[in-house]
Write a structure and sequence with these properties.
heterodimer, A: alpha+beta, seven-stranded mixed sheet, 30 helices, B: alpha+beta, 26% helix
Chain lengths: 825, 218
């Protein structure tokens, strides 16, 4: 299956999004199609062998929308010096086009620039410049345009175009509204040109209104082209409602103009040009505000994209050369000076420094880096000069993967969005029917075409479902973006929604609740064996172990200067311990269960006390006889207690799952305030323990950091991988915490609750506007002696609904992480 | 600059021409007035034209040359007898209104001399009123009548479409001066006192009392 994200132009409401999803989803080979109205993106999962991407694009274009193509490769503008005529430009163009990897090249003689689209995998900008220089011209430093920048510029152009359209519409609509309303306002005498007096010069008055409304309709032409096209294809959308409503007003007014020319001067009272004009103007105002707000919802992604450095200093042929970031290849040796950003992911080859990784992890303290340590793109080298060997470049860097993850999340749909999708699918046709029925009913009741038309237009205009379409995606975009800013990567709308329902959180102990760096605390030898001998024996046996407890014993022994013996026939006994042959003796190191299994009598006083103190006693047996106990303790993270308390305040039960014995686990749990302990659980059984909790009716989140946690992360309703962890944990988890701080768990839950509450508020407003607005527009209040809603006020209310939903979603930007609140407190 | 001025002048002329062409009430009133004159020809009286009601009790008089007529350029002439019979004391009427056996109420329309051919045609003469005093021409939607406002609440109205209207011409009087001069305005023979819907200066719909004398001449 292939995945693609396509930028879509021309969508205006949830009905448009739903229509694209339906049409693309029906194509053979398409497994999933989801449209995010707020980011204007189509996320499609498809089988490239069954349906080519071009067919998907064609299907979108066919129903009246645009697929906004990104340049197929890199794009660069190289300033060229030395050109004197068109022949020079042509020569450079020809040469560039012949180069392998160049997709398109054009030279602008006046601007003295060569614009080249190229495949960065096949050719570098330096090669393009070299080719130009070989022809005898000067190729200067290139201006590069990346896709994100291009997308930003495109959005800005769209917003500017919308504002211009609104300004033009307003310039014509305001006088139109004035001349339409001033003669009706009788309680105050407004200045009004006598030559336009409707009772004296009805046709002049009508023509003046027509002249003023035509430019407004011209700038709002998209409502008509898209709206009527959708209507003909029996899939009406918001534009269809605007188009039908304003067209009805316009055509009825033109008909009344004709009546005036036929001597029915009274028809001047039935002109609705201002209704059409002002509706379009207000909708354009709403769309302009909406575009600005939409841009703000994706600021988090823009910020992440902006983190990436544009160039890197690379050692080539013994010299330092600054090259564009896209030209860095795996294996290149890069020089990173203090204050510079690490250009790509890599390994420190030479030098020592501290790197500020807060932009990726949220961790404010710089991390020491020396030869062999991994460094990540976009992190900041704070003090030393280091050489870095590039290991991951382009889309494979941690930053690029985070951006992809956040982009995917922002494009995904929460289950709650399905409600809006279902409603909006039926909404427009139902509204059309209500408008028609109301209009006909009022016409039958009053016999007044103008009145019936007012009702018809008002219902159509007030019921536009754009707020409905924006309610969910905008909140998800802001929520997931806000999470990313705080080092909390939420993988999708579903994760966001499920997280808010969680009532039990199970923490893996080692590396999650504790630091995961245990140290040896007690050594209790049996018989004549000295402490050093017991430690040396145990450490020798554990040399082959990857378990943190085993490694802690080995590191501790080495630090003490103990000479370790070679261990033979090493075997790791999952969840229980290890066995090996050391100096010819069979050594067994592990928990009580292992000793019981092997028939070793546990006759040592004091081992029970160790467990109660939260230490892990590692029993050591030599040739089947207990040799002693080495106790190892893992330090609890400073934030663990605060995190559990924060969860308790939220009404969430905390549980801890560990392979440790019951007493050790209970001791740790007491320290941090955890309610339930699941101890002595083998790694392979973690998943079934989660299942047991789920069978109790609990909504369970699992927080873990290691490969062995992956099945439990998948089994849980929400898997939370902590501390950026392993790739497997990241893949298995629904939420990835970039830092190792447990406070991010309540923050993630709180963010999900706030986001879902925000979505519910948005849906309430969106539905509220329509459920209240439609009956009012249909004249129910008027029927009961109340006021009648003018189509103009209906348009204003409709625009306000989208803006208020967006403004509400943007309130999420004020969300603050728990850690900040804790430190503030 | 000259070119700019020329353009502005051309645009203004174009706009003026367009506005005139679009003046459906002004132009329509001329057309329908010509229809009235076809049915009930006006008589020339010096520099004026006189359209007399079939019963002879009222006439609408308008000037062919505003520069040569006196106090009024368009006016109503009424037989005073029925008003006097209803108690009118002509001496208590506003100055100039009582002129022997006739009562006169009218408006001054200016002093501009028309083109020579204008004064020779009653229709073209009426057209002068439209051209120079357009604000006096109106359309009474309820009756589908055009009308000339002759100041003081006095009007002369005629049907836009005589074929579809049973009140082809209507003499409209403000009853107030007659009431104040002692007449029982409800008892003037040949005149009907009625409430008529119109608009005040601010454009608000109001009802006012009028004395009406309608005729079907078509």
């Amino acid at each position: 299956m292939d995945n693609q994200i396509l930028s879509i132009g021309g969508m205006t409401c949830a009905a448009c999004a739903g229509r694209i999803e339906r049409v693309v989803g029906k194509l053979p080979g398409v497994r999933r199609a989801a449209v995010n109205l707020a980011s204007e993106k189509l996320f499609v999962e498809y089988d490239g062998a069954s349906v080519p991407l071009s067919a998907i694009k064609e299907a979108v274009v066919k129903i009246g929308y645009e697929v906004l193509e990104k340049p197929p490769g890199g794009a660069v503008a190289i300033p060229v010096g030395g050109m004197t005529c068109a022949a020079c430009a042509g020569r450079i163009e020809k040469t560039l086009r012949r180069l392998d990897g160049v997709i398109e090249a054009s030279v602008n003689l006046a601007a003295e620039k060569a614009f080249v689209t190229y495949d960065p995998k096949r050719i570098r900008v330096s090669a393009l410049r070299a080719a130009i220089e070989k022809l005898g011209y000067q190729a200067l430093e290139a201006d590069r345009t990346d896709a994100a920048e291009e997308d930003r510029r495109r959005k800005q152009r769209e917003i500017r175009a919308l504002w211009i359209r609104f300004a033009v519409a307003a310039v014509f609509s305001l006088p139109l509204l004035y001349i339409a309303m001033a003669p009706m306002i009788t309680w105050v005498r407004l200045p009004f040109p006598a030559s336009l007096a409707p009772m004296q010069f009805p046709l002049v008055y009508a023509v003046a209104e027509l002249i003023l409304v035509v430019p407004v309709i011209v700038v709002g032409y998209r409502f008509y082209t898209v709206g009527f096209k959708a209507l003909w294809q029996r899939s009406p959308n918001m534009d269809s409602l605007i188009a039908v409503g304003t067209s009805a007003a316009f055509l009825y007014s033109v008909y009344n103009m004709w009546r005036i020319t036929q001597g029915d001067f009274h028809a001047v009272d039935a002109l609705y040009f201002e209704t059409a004009g002002v509706i379009i103007t207000l909708i354009l105002l709403g769309k302009s505000l909406e575009a600005v707000s939409k841009g703000r919802t994706s600021e988090a992604i823009k910020k992440l994209m902006g983190l990436a450095p544009k160039t890197a200093v690379v050692f080539r042929d013994g010299a330092e050369t600054e090259i564009p970031i896209d030209e860095v290849e795996i294996g290149d040796v890069l020089l990173v000076r203090p204050g510079a950003k690490i250009p790509v992911d890599g390994t420190v080859r030479e030098g020592h420094t501290a790197v500020d990784e807060s932009m990726l992890t949220g961790e404010s303290m710089p991390v020491d880096k020396q030869a062999g340590d991994e460094v990540y793109a976009a992190t900041l080298n704070t003090n030393g000069v280091v050489q870095v060997t590039a290991t991951r470049v382009g889309g494979d860097t941690a930053l690029a993967r985070i951006i992809k993850l956040v982009e995917d999340a922002q494009g995904s749909k929460a289950p709650i969005a399905q409600l809006a999708d279902i409603v909006s699918g039926y909404f427009v046709p139902i509204v059309c029917a209500i408008a028609l029925l109301s209009g006909v009913a009022w016409y039958i009741g009053r016999g007044d075409v103008s009145f019936a038309l007012t009702i018809f237009i008002s219902v159509l205009v007030i019921a536009c479902p754009c707020a409905l379409g924006l309610a969910t995606p905008t909140a998800i975009m802001v929520g997931t973006g806000k999470g990313a800013e705080n080092g909390i990567l939420i993988k999708g709308g579903e994760a966001l929604e499920t997280a808010h329902k969680v009532n039990t959180i199970v923490f893996d102990k080692t590396g999650t609740v504790t630091e995961g760096k245990p140290t040896v605390t007690d050594i209790l030898p049996v018989g004549a064996l000295s402490k050093e001998e017991l430690w040396r024996l145990t450490a020798s046996a554990e040399q082959g172990s990857e378990h943190p407890l085993g490694q802690a014993i080995v590191h501790g022994a080495r630090a003490e200067g103990l000479a370790l013996s070679l261990a033979e026939r090493f075997t790791a006994l999952t969840g229980r311990g290890v066995e090996a042959v050391v100096d010819g003796a069979a050594v067994l190191v592990g928990n009580a269960a292992l000793m019981e299994e092997r028939g070793v009598a546990l006759t040592l006083a004091g081992s029970d006390r160790l467990a109660e103190e939260g230490k892990t006693p590692m029993y050591v047996a030599r040739d089947g006889q207990l040799a002693g106990v080495v106790a190892v303790a893992d330090v609890v993270k400073p934030s663990s207690r605060a995190a559990i308390e924060s969860l308790h305040r939220m009404g969430i039960e905390g549980a801890m799952i560990t392979g440790d014995n019951r007493r050790t686990a209970a001791a740790i749990a007491r320290q941090v305030g955890i309610d339930r302990v699941l101890s002595e659980v083998l790694p392979q059984d973690k998943s079934s323990e989660i299942q047991k909790l789920q069978r109790e009716g609990k909504r369970v989140a699992m927080v873990g950091d290691g490969i062995n946690d992956a099945p439990a992360l998948v089994q849980a309703d929400i898997g939370i991988a902590i501390g950026s962890g392993t790739d497997v944990a990241m893949e298995s988890a629904d939420i990835v915490l970039m830092r190792s701080d447990l406070m991010d768990v309540p923050t993630a839950i709180r963010l999900s609750r706030r986001t879902i509450r925000n979505i519910k508020q948005n849906l309430f407003w969106a539905f509220g506007y329509n459920t209240i607005g439609i009956p009012v527009a249909a004249g129910v209040l008027y029927l009961l002696g109340g006021p009648l809603l003018s189509p103009i006020f209906a348009a204003a209310a409709m625009s306000l609904s989208s803006v208020s939903v967006l403004t509400n979603a943007l309130r999420l930007k004020r969300f603050r992480a728990d850690r900040e609140e804790v430190s503030a407190a | 600059m000259k070119r700019l001025l020329l353009c502005a002048l051309c645009a203004a002329l174009l706009l003026l021409t367009a506005c005139r062409a679009l003046d459906v009430i002004g132009n329509g009133s001329v057309t329908s007035f010509a229809g009235v004159l076809d049915a009930l020809p006006a008589a020339a009286a010096g520099d004026t034209w006189m359209l007399t009601a079939p019963d002879g009790a009222a006439a609408f008089v308008w000037s062919g040359d505003f520069s040569r007529t006196g106090v009024y350029d368009a006016w109503l002439e009424l037989d005073a007898a029925p008003f006097v019979a209803a108690g009118l004391d002509p001496g208590r009427l506003p100055d100039g209104m009582a002129q022997g056996e006739r009562l006169v109420a009218g408006a001054s329309l200016g002093a501009q001399a028309p083109a020579p051919e204008v004064s020779e045609s009653p229709v073209l003469s009426y057209g002068q009123i439209v051209a120079q005093q357009r604000a006096r021409i109106g359309h009474h939607a309820a009756m589908d009548h055009f009308g000339v406002d002759l100041d003081g609440g006095f009007m002369f109205e005629w049907a836009r479409d005589m074929a579809a209207n049973d009140k082809d011409i209507v003499f409209v009087l403000n009853p107030e001066p007659f009431r104040q001069a002692g007449a029982d305005v409800g008892a003037i023979e040949g005149w009907a006192l009625a409430m008529v819907e119109t608009m005040d200066e601010a454009g608000r719909p109001i009802e006012v009392e009028k004395l009406l004398k309608p005729f079907d001449i078509g």
